[in-house]
Amino acid sequence: MLARLPRRLPIQAFQARRPLSTTLQRKSDALFVHRDTPYNNPKIAFEFDAETMKRANEIISHYPPQYKKAAVIPLLDLGQRQNKGWTSISVMNYVAKLLEMPPMRVYEVATFYTMFNREPIGTNFVQVCTTTPCMLRGSTDILNTTLQHLGGIKPGQTTKDGKFTVVEVECQGACSNAPMIVVGDDYYEDLTPETTRKILDAFAKGEKPKPGPQSGRFTSENSAGLTTLTTKPYGPGEFCLPEFS
């Protein structure tokens, strides 16, 4: 007779409880096909301001004239930043005209990369990493804390005051400092529910908390503190023979 298998422990024994959420079913073409709306249609004018155009021309200069279309991703990023964090159809058309590309080629890029937001977002764009390393370090608590502290919204939603949009993302490359979130361009690492609420409150007041580890760590050193590079690094040529100095 086969030995009786041990009873499986509930998942709650290993991690914080995570509520199941669903979104409305959407047709597949909604992900890739543009539909005109009052706030997103080709009739809404867009063009780079003087400062952004200066940066765009500098980026374009890195490529041979016949390959300037390779600048499409950084130029879309510039357009998104100027357009309050999202890439409208007018931004795409403007970049296509500037780079002398068929608009469809720009649409293909903007719909492929998730870094381009095709709908308006809040003033503060919060990306909560929930991939495996962060999950093992408590990202479920961080995600739930963020959503609850911002009025009980769900991933992908924006708060009623327009200050925050929260999305759930995969690895952001800060696994040694998990769990973490990204707000705008800044990383906030080594989080706890308490420090997460503190960060969100600061942004809600229009302040910018100091990015990086929130646990007192300087970078990614272990819990025992620095074990290497504990002395001042020597300068170039310090240990060279005199004839090479």
Characterization of this structure:
The protein has 245 residues and is of the alpha/beta class. Among the domains are: 35-112, Arc Repressor Mutant, subunit A, CATH 1.10.10; 124-213, Glutaredoxin, CATH 3.40.30. It has 7 helices and 5 strands, in the order ααααβααβββαβ. A 5-stranded mixed β-sheet has the order 2-1-3-4-5, with helices on one face. The protein is flat, with a radius of gyration of 23 Å. The mean pLDDT is 88.
Architecture blueprint of SSEs:
Blueprint: H1 50-60, H2 72-82, H3 89-98, H4 103-112, E1 124-129, H5 132-136, H6 139-149, E2 164-169, E3 181-183, E4 186-189, H7 193-204, E5 212-213
Parallel strand pairs: 1-2, 4-5
Antiparallel strand pairs: 1-3, 3-4
Helix pairs in contact: 1-2, 2-3, 3-4, 6-7
CATH C-level category of the domain at 124-213: Alpha Beta
H-E string:
HHHHEHHEEEHE
Low-confidence parts, pLDDT < 50 over ≥5 residues?
none
Shape: flat
Pfam families: 2Fe-2S_thioredx
Cofactor: [2Fe-2S] cluster
Keywords: 2Fe-2S, Iron, Iron-sulfur, Metal-binding, NAD, Translocase
GO molecular function, one term: 2 iron, 2 sulfur cluster binding
Write a brief structural summary.
By secondary structure, the protein is of the alpha/beta class. Helices cover 29% and strands 9% of the residues. The protein is flat.
Salient structural properties:
Glutaredoxin; 5 strands; alpha/beta; 5-stranded mixed β-sheet; single chain; flat
